[in-house]
Write a structure and sequence with these properties.
The protein is an alpha/beta fold. It is built from eleven helices and eleven strands. Helix 4 crosses helix 7. Bound molecules: pantoate (PAF). Pantoate binds next to helix 4. It comes from Parathalassolituus penaei. It is an enzyme of class 1 (oxidoreductase). It catalyses: (R)-pantoate + NADP(+) = 2-dehydropantoate + NADPH + H(+). InterPro entries: 6-PGluconate_DH-like_C_sf, 6PGD_dom2, ApbA, Ketopantoate_reductase, KPA_reductase, KPR_N, NAD(P)-bd_dom_sf.
Length: about 300
């Protein structure tokens, strides 16, 4: 079945998704409100797609692939037309932005469904602007429960367009991906190294191992079950993506804002709310950002009185 899909954020991931969905009725939501061309190189062959500018036509899906921190500003820009959107699908790294978007939708009186997706597909932008598909993976999507903190399974009668696989507990998969990102992304940014070097370098590996353990403990204390042993899984991801520069390192090298507020920062917020110490994450944040995370400052300025 053909559906109508708008794409907001035509970077590497947005372009990859446009090519996956080329049989659907696609629209571009660019800052300049203009049509867009998306060029993708996949296994050596180059394909170009032309997406018309979205003029407010009814959308079954609005895919948001901006950086997590840019989500609300990007949506705000399109606010006058959002009543025409049935479902918002956020395909981004990190957690916490979904909560912010749901609150904003409620404030705005917008009733579109909120969905989240995570992807293990790889793509990067070459200097000439062409997006290069780096690795095949899986895209999982699911509806965020109405109350974002509820563990209740959402209605799954609607499914996201293939190749997205619709799952009924996307939060679980998001947390699993978050554990991976919370180790690989800040460490590669700190050491300015490729993912695989975290496993090989005699100074980086002990740090990697200790961080996996800290995050595993945190998940246990928060009651967030993991379907894997953190060290085993995160090592496997670092090995499978050994030659990649993580998205955070790419952001730093390009001088762009990164998503660590929605990765390490999100975990620090969750830990502080549950009065759990997270010393390695707190230290990493401080090393990468040059200042303590606000959640760690709150924790130290509000000592728990026995
Ligand atoms: O953010 C990233 O770069 C990726 O999610 C991952 C899995 C860390 C691989 O580089």
């Amino acid at each position: 079945m053909t559906v109508s899909i708008g794409i907001l954020g035509l970077g590497a991931v947005g372009t990859l998704m446009a090519h996956h969905w080329q049989q659907h009725c696609l629209y571009a939501l660019t800052r300049q409100q203009q049509e867009a061309s998306c060029r993708l190189e996949d296994e050596g062959s180059l394909a170009t797609l032309h997406l018309p500018a979205w003029q407010g036509e009814s959308l079954d899906w609005l895919l948001v692939c901006t950086k997590a921190a840019a989500t609300l500003d990007a949506l705000q820009l399109w606010r006058p037309r959002l009543a025409a959107v049935k479902r918002l699908l956020l395909l981004q790294n990190g957690m916490g932005q979904h909560q912010q978007v749901q609150q904003w939708l409620d404030q705005q009186g917008l009733s579109c469904e909120l969905w989240a997706a995570i992807s293990t597909e790889g793509a990067w932008r070459r200097d000439d602007g062409v997006i290069v598909r780096a690795g095949k993976g899986e895209i999982l999507a699911g509806r965020i429960p109405i109350s974002i903190n509820s563990e209740k399974s959402p209605d799954t009668t609607v499914t996201a367009p293939a190749p997205c696989k619709t799952v009924d507990n996307i939060q679980q998969y998001q947390r699993e991906k978050l554990a991976v990102n919370a180790v690989i992304n800040p460490l590669t940014a700190l050491y300015r190294c490729r993912n695989g070097e975290l496993l090989e370098h005699p100074d980086y590996y002990p740090h990697f191992k200790a961080l996996c353990a800290e995050i595993g403990d945190l998940y246990q204390q928060l009651g967030w079950p993991l379907a894997f042993d953190p060290l085993t899984r995160i090592s496997a991801v670092a090995k499978a993506t050994a030659t990649n520069r993580s998205s955070t390192l790419q952001d730093h090298l390009a001088g762009r804002p990164d998503e660590l507020a929605y990765i390490t920062g999100y975990l620090l917020e969750q830990a502080a709310a549950a009065t759990i110490e997270l010393p390695l994450c707190a230290q990493l944040w401080q090393q990468v950002r040059g200042e303590p995370h606000p959640a760690t400052l709150r924790a130290t300025s509000n000592p728990v009185i026995p």
